[in-house]
Design goal:
Structural class: alpha+beta
Number of strands: 4
Distance between the termini: 44 Å
Number of domains: 1
Largest sheet: 4 strands, mixed
Number of helices: 4
Order of helices and strands: HEEEHHEH
Helix content: 25-40%
CATH class: Alpha Beta
CATH architecture: 2-Layer Sandwich
């Protein structure tokens, strides 16, 4: 009998393969995205110093107050513009996009497009 690997294990393996080639620096941090069933999380990470420079999620009070739902494409777009504005205020203009093993489609794509429109380059 063949046992099927669960979706989380498949995603983490994809993320591990992606991370071989992606690394963030202080000048160009890695924009890491995680999506759960109910929320989205974004971090700007400097891998050389192993430090999180900025973070945002749909759990934050100021973000959650602006949203009707926290798990749809509109929430992902808002989070992308929010992290883009925060990054520009902190002096970060270029990032390396890390989709976290998720397919670049739907919420992940909406977040990335919104961050680009806010002024981030990747």
């Amino acid at each position: 009998m063949i046992s099927k690997v669960n979706r989380k294990a498949v995603r983490t393996e994809k993320h591990r393969r992606l991370r071989r080639y992606l690394a963030g620096t202080a000048e160009r941090p890695r924009m890491s995205v995680f999506r759960s069933n109910n929320h989205m999380y974004v971090q700007l990470i400097d891998d050389t110093a192993q430090k999180t420079l900025l973070s945002a999620s749909t759990l934050q009070k100021d973000v959650k107050a602006q949203l009707e739902k926290t798990n749809d494409v509109a929430a992902a777009e808002f989070l992308g513009t929010y992290i883009g504005k925060k990054a520009l205020e902190a002096g970060i203009t270029e990032v390396v996009f890390d989709r976290g093993g998720f397919i670049y489609h739907g919420k992940i794509q909406a977040l990335a497009d919104a961050a680009r429109e806010a002024g981030l380059k990747f």
